[in-house]
Write a structure and sequence with these properties.
It is a single chain. It is built from 1 helix and 12 strands; from the N terminus they run ββββββββββββα. It is mostly beta strands. It has a domain of about 130 residues. β10 and β11 form a beta hairpin.
Length: about 180
């Protein structure tokens, strides 16, 4: 789990012992904390036995969850959607358990795997974007480096993934004027 922290957007795919495949797209970097985070560009997916992409309902903002801080009472593992104890998809921090909910209020999804507690055969996580920037992105004199990219450009791979599934950002084509171009 430590390998995906601040590693940018990811695609998580699980294959269970019965050959079912399911997972999700996390549009933001994973952060270790006992709360949900992420954006509505995230989604759950099922590949086998049936395929489907399940987008945000807008009902809540419980998109991504990553916690392995054993000194608290929150679940330790990786989750997407739903709520504590009823995640759309949840992988325990030791990858010994997987749980899927019968439905998910965060994503308009049915149960994404026929088994509610599938046994993991394979787990694959692909990074599909730039890694998150940290506070060390400073110039030698301690000043922050100037940001030259628009917020619309910060996640080109996530934007490409959204285009592949037929979703576009409402703000595409809109830009603030560049003060240096005057």
């Amino acid at each position: 789990m430590k390998q995906i922290v601040n590693a940018g957007p990811t695609i998580v795919v699980v294959e269970d012992e019965d050959g079912n495949k399911f997972g999700g797209f996390a549009s933001g970097a994973w952060e270790v904390r006992p709360q949900f985070h992420g954006t509505g560009e995230s989604f759950l997916l099922s590949l086998r036995p049936e395929s489907g992409v399940y987008r945000s309902t807008g009902y809540n903002s419980n998109y991504q969850y990553l916690n392995y801080l054993h000194n608290n009472t929150m679940p330790n593992g990786l989750g997407m959607g739903g709520r504590e104890e009823l995640f759309g998809m949840f992988l325990s921090d030791d990858f010994g358990e997987c749980q899927v909910a019968p439905s998910c209020t965060t994503f308009h999804s049915p149960q994404i795997c026929p088994n509610r507690s599938p046994k993991i055969r394979y787990l694959t996580i692909w990074g599909v974007g730039e890694e998150a920037k940290d506070s060390s992105d400073e110039e030698e004199d301690g000043a922050a480096k100037p940001k030259k990219r628009s917020a619309l450009d910060t996640n080109a791979d996530a934007t490409a993934m959204l285009d592949m599934i037929g979703r576009v950002r409402a703000s595409d084509g809109l830009r603030e004027p560049d003060p240096e171009s005057d």
